[in-house]
Amino acid sequence: MKLREVFILLSLLVFGFLALLYTVWPPALWIGIFISPIVLLGFYDIAQKKHAIKRNFPVVGNLRYLLEKIRPEIMQYFVETDTEGRPINRLFRTLIYERSKKLSDTSPFGTQLDLYQVGYEWMNHSVYAKNISHKKKEHRVLVGGPDCEQPYSASLLNISAMSYGSLSKNAVLALNAGAKIGNFAHNTGEGGVSRYHLESGGDLIWQIGTGYFGCRSADGRFCPDSFKKNSTIAKVKMIELKLSQGAKPGHGGILPALKNTPEIAKIRGVQAHVDVNSPPSHTEFNNAKELMLFIATLRKLSGGKPVGFKLCVGKKEEFEDFCKAMLETKISPDFIAVDGGEGGTGAAPVEFANSIGMPLREGLSFVVNTLEKYKLKDKIKIIASGKVFTAFHMARLIALGADLIASSRAMMLALGCIQALECNSNTCPTGVATQNKSLMKGLDVKDKKQRVANFHEETIKAFNELLSASGLEKPSELSREHINKRVGTNKILKYSDIYPSSESRDSV
Questions:
Q1: Which of 24, 27, 153, 386 is the right S-S partner for 340, CB 3.0 to 4.6 Å?
Q2: Domain residue spans in the chain?
């Protein structure tokens, strides 16, 4: 006899027994009230045809779906070790939490990492370490090429692109206020410049994607007038044209209908309560030369502010074409932001997140080498983003040639994100990545803005200590020679061997 048939028989027997019991003992009615919902659930399970498990195993079959729903929490809190969690392990999450709260970020009893495991990386130190004061003025990088009239002095570490819409208004307010406190830049993401980006007064990098949100005409094309209006806002310090992003290169952005509120729709110039999918490519240019001309147009309309583009490296020959076009037109971006295939904070198709886009270190070294090959690197600053959580993560990217670092997920964790993996469902329990007002009100802007600023301050402090330990005084002194990687049980290579420079390739 099948379980569902047993369930039906037992239900009939139990109700029959309770009916008889009620005639002699009236309180039995309360037992029936308690049991009835369970019995009704069981009959519903038997009647529905969507889930075979619940149909064959009424009531108890629901436990399977309950356990599946809370599986991420079970894994995170009870199963995974400090070094196994994905996409960010607990070791790094804890470090970010501690730094954002200015708690002790030291580690007791030695490292938890396996130093003999293939893939382990470390930085060379020097017996002639420098004594760099933590109170020393932070290293800044001036972004702006020969044609830039308003260069921007940027922090080494900044907030990477995350849109209002993907994030809640409280999250945007706290991020920007943290940037204001710490004097670093906040990338708006492609969702446009909202009043929440401007309220706290932090420096902004305005990102423009393929949907041209914030500078969009009625037909979805680029609107010069609205671009000029927003780009000349005093707190907009740089303009970033997004060609592609690490999470879903070649796909375009995704804003689920649940997050597309009337306010967000008005900012973006789209219809509310519908899925908003940005086009996979831009409509204002079709080749490298047209891209350079468009960059010149944006720079002119913005009053000479730094203009650059962001990409996750795909076809190498296309980037080569960019460099050739720079030489031909004598127009070059002020910066290039390189995103890695490991990047991403919001919704992305699984195949794109897992299998499209060059990883950051390979993409970054290629971009730097190619710019050096065409003698363009000196006037173009490089921003690197993709899984940057610690000062060492910063150091190895700067060693590869990056001038600046942008981080998104670390900043989300500083806000209080617990990696619930609900960024795309509007149910973020910490109020970071949701438009649900009852959830976002749990994110206290006054508290979280200080945490964002603290994380930035403590990470920059740790980076200065790494420089000191290596006997260096400036980030520009970091080179590929300083970073080592175990590539075999008894084989170690320097980054200069794994990612040879353009000069090294030419000499081979």
A1: 386
A2: 3-69, 138-471, 478-508
